[in-house]
Amino acid sequence: MHVLYVYAHPEPRSFNGAIRDTAMTTLVRAGHEVKVSNLYVMKFKAVLDPHDFRIRYNSDRFDPAAEQVHGFRTGSLAPDISEEIEKVSWADLIIFQFPIWWSHMPAILKGWIDRVFVQGFAFDPESGNVYERGLLRGKKAMIVATFGSSEEKDSHGGTDRTLTDHISSINHSVFEFTGMTALPPFIVFSTDTMNHEEGARQIDRYRRFLESL
Ligand SMILES: Cc1cc2nc3c(=O)[nH]c(=O)nc-3n(C[C@H](O)[C@H](O)[C@H](O)COP(=O)(O)O)c2cc1C
Asked: Do 113 and 4 contact (CB within 8 A), yes or no?
């Protein structure tokens, strides 16, 4: 399988760094071809703005969706977006790995989605190309996320109840909307209070999870 691994954590020696390393060796050992978008290392630009479009559709008034459609059709998107679009086109499976920050993905990853899943490439509502007719149909996508808080807090209606709701929302509104099949997420809770042994157990659980893909 062609796997694109989109990774958003600024510190290689973090827990996220450790599980990313495990993913690389496990996926390659299982015979998959892997490409990585390591967003902090790439210093990936996180904001969709007029600089994303080398030839403007309308230079008087900035309409992001119209510019995306035009930019993709005319091949005039910024080079960093085009490179990511090529990787997405190549991939059978896209894995997004990130820590939960303020109940959501880090801004750099949200920016990747804003800028790379452009209208006309990933979906096209005007031609009905959304959900089962989404333009990324046939591909799979999966979230790997780490939470500082505990699973109990999340599942028993505590203040963090919305944490896994956010994961479901990405699965539906991003992956399924663009036609991809959302695979079950891999989630690690309580990372902020986890000891070394528990960390090693979670890494081993992730390795087995990836082997079962
Ligand atoms: C800016 C920021 C916001 C955070 N917000 C949340 C949050 O909303 N919910 C949560 O469970 N943990 C939150 N955390 C904790 C991180 O999810 C946790 O530290 C991370 O998953 C641990 O992985 P790491 O050691 O690889 O960074 C936050 C951490 C930071 C730095």
From this structure: no
Ligand 1 in contact with 98 (CB < 6 A)?
Answer: no
Strand pairing report for 2-7 and 181-182: unpaired
Q: Closest by alpha carbon to 179, among 153, 140, 151?
A: 140
Phi, psi torsion values for 183, nearest 5 degrees: -80, 155
> How crowded is the C-beta side of 134, counted as CA atoms within 13 Å?
21
Q: Given ligand 1 and candidates 7, 164, 166, 191, which is best to mutate, with the most ligand atoms within 8 Å of its CB?
A: 191
In ligand 1, which atom is closest to the CA atom of 14? 26
H/E segment holding residue 16: helix 15-29
Mean pLDDT estimate for the chain: 95
**Mind listing the pLDDT tens digit for each residue in 84-109?**
999 999 999 999 999 999 989 999 99
Q: Is 100 in the pocket of ligand 1 (CB under 6 A)?
A: yes
**What is the pLDDT at residue 166?**
85
Range of the structural domain that residue 81 is part of: 2-211
Q: Is the pLDDT of residue 161 over 60?
A: no
Domain CATH number, residue 153: 3.40.50.360
CB 165: neighbour CB atoms within 10 A? Answer: 11
Domain total in the chain? 1
Q: Is the CB of 97 under 6 A from ligand 1?
A: no
